[in-house]
Amino acid sequence: MPATVVIGGQWGDEGKGRIVDLIARDASVIARYSAGNNAGHTIINEQGVFALHIVPAGILYPDKTCIVGNGVAVDPAVLLDEIATLEARGVSTERLLISDRAHVVMPYHPIIDQLDEQLRGAAAVGTTGRGIGPCFADKVARLGIRMGDLVDPRAFHERLSFVLPYKNAVLTRLYDAEPLPFDEVYATYSEYASRLAPRVTDTSVVAREALARGESILLEGAQGALLDLDGGTYDYVTSSVPSSTSAGAAIGMGIGPADITKVLGVYKAYMTRVGNGPMPTELLDEDGQILRIQGPRPEIGTTTGRPRRTGWFDAVASSYSAQLNSVSAIAITRLDVLDPFASIKVCTHYKIDGKIVSTPPASLGAFNRAEPEYEELPGWQADSTGARRFEDLPPNAQRYVKRLGELIGRPIEIVSVGPEREQVIMVDHAI
Ligand code: GDP
Ligand code: IMO
Ligand code: MG
Known about the structure:
Radius of gyration: 21 Å
Helix content: 25-40%
Bound molecules: guanosine-5'-diphosphate, 6-O-phosphoryl inosine monophosphate, magnesium ion
Shape: globular
Number of strands: 20
Structural class: alpha/beta
Distance between the termini: 28 Å
């Protein structure tokens, strides 16, 4: 049986966790394949509100195997904390496995992340400061420490003896910062290792065996396509290797690309972004503020608590991300946030230096100069949160959703009208 990938089609926080929670019941394995605790996925169900950063959303089902795949950057302290919090709330983490090839976020990574941001000054990316970029940079530079090394005391000692002096030289000579003491780092991380060791295994074998048994795997994307190193608004992007697009999912899980037969693209009914970088439809006016505060879950970052930048739906960026990810079907989330508007704009093209453009430019300068060309749709000014069938939505909300589907160019399968598990429309016919 196949693997399905759930990806974010915008700049992250589209509601991927909420959608994975919804469809996880049909899968036997749920896995994260990229990023680290720069991600924050919120799930609300009868057990309460959960903000997950490394653990896949499937953990809230008692019968699912959950995998932190080889493409994830694992901060062991954060993961242990997340496990402890879940257990304290009565959620069993017994079936949580961690790839022996996943890279470890070491204590110098957040330090370097924050120092790099300071050095960039006005060009700061606005990272989450969790050390994820520097961890992936070390992966690529062949200076990483993997979970398999961490849980083997001799291998860890050997690896840290090589890597830490190197990183301390970088800390002291490049950044004028304090070096980290070997014995302290070794002792602290050895203690983390002993607690995580029973979960560390070759998770790609677990995934491939599940596929061979005819079971379904759900691959939970992090971030969004517009934050991708290659496809996104470089250099205001995240540094995940492999990419958090669907193309990275097979690599980050250790399965083959042909095992993936479905890509569900999650899109908010408008745009948000945390951190810096281009956002052509950003609203700095009262409408932007309404998008930020409307409804039960205001636009506040799950990981850093920063207010999210908000703007009208950008169909240029969103149709591009659908193509980039081979999106086969769409989930639209947070439609209810648009309930109060009398009229709603959708950006169909950019105008850059007087020219009409229908795909995002590579150049940051051009992206920053992109002016949105809007079409205006009537709002519905009615409560959409009670709709459970597409036909229950106010007629103008139906029109709006259909128009997003046309502009993205893919069929709509799910419309979310609230953060809770049952506040959703499963669209079972062409709309
Ligand atoms: P993720 O990173 O893509 O998993 O998204 P986040 O969890 O960071 O942010 C999405 C936010 O929107 C969370 O607070 C969710 O609880 C909330 N949410 C998800 N779907 C809906 C929806 O349809 N309506 C509303 N009002 N909130 C939603
Ligand atoms: P989820 O999975 C929103 C953003 C950061 C910053 C940029 C680089 O919850 O959708 P990083 O710390 O990754 O080096 O920061 O990327 N960013 C996210 N924004 N949602 C996320 O994840 C994000 N992960 C990274 O805000 O702009
Ligand atoms: Mg998030």
